[in-house]
Amino acid sequence: MSCFLGIDPGVKAGGFGLIDADGNLIECGGFNKFLTLGDLSIKSAGLERIQFQHRDKGAKLFHIEKLLINFGEWRGILKDRGIDFIEIQPLTWQSGFGLVFRRGAGKAVSLGQLKLIKSDMVLKVAQMLFPNAPLNRRKDDGIAAGLLIAEYVRRIGKQAELFEGTCQ
Q: What is the CATH topology of the domain spanning 3-164?
């Protein structure tokens, strides 16, 4: 059985999602849980690429450092296990599920509120696609993102298969 892996490196509680070729949940959880999984036939993986903006300086320096460490640990684990992976921009996989978040002009929504709205929406979509996944708390949004990234990788893989033999 081949499966697809999605990873959100996260600052505190990132997560992973593992699904089969039909899009069914195999496993999900945090970094330590992934380390305990046995040898799996992972067809491909998607690792959320980290990105920073000018406003991410100052008080958030600790969070940026932790995110960089998490990202590097995930990359190292994937390379060590010989798993082929792609780095996916957050906006790329999110737009694949219609999860594009922008602060509109004239709206009284702070950046913190926008992050909570985004987190809730990611959880809701993952709960709909994977009703058996343990996504009961807001802090499970990293696991939810991992599942959605895995589904995104599965979908783009299927699209590539559809077009593989058409242009010779």
A: Nucleotidyltransferase; domain 5 (3.30.420)
Assign 17 to helix, strand or coil. Answer: strand
Terminal-residue alpha carbon distance, the chain: 29
Ranges of H-type helices in the chain: 31-36, 61-80, 90-95, 111-129, 141-164
Judged by average pLDDT, the poorest of 121-125, 145-149, 159-163 is 159-163
Contact between residue 78 and residue 85 where contact means Cβ atoms under 8 Å apart: yes
Domain residue ranges of the chain, discontinuous segments joined by +: 3-164
Integer CA distances (angstroms), 36 to 82, 125, 130, in order: 16, 27, 22
Token pair belonging to 105? 């002009």
Residues in the chain: 168
Residue recorded with tokens 């594009």: 100
pTM of the model: 0.86
Close Cβ partners of 134 (under 8 Å, ≥ 6 residues apart): 28, 140, 143
Measured distance CA(144)–CA(123) in Å, rounded:
6
Q: How far apart are CA 144 and CA 16, in angstroms?
A: 8
Q: Which amino acid type is present at position 162?
A: L
pLDDT tens digits, 36-76: 888 788 888 999 998 766 555 555 666 778 888 889 999 99
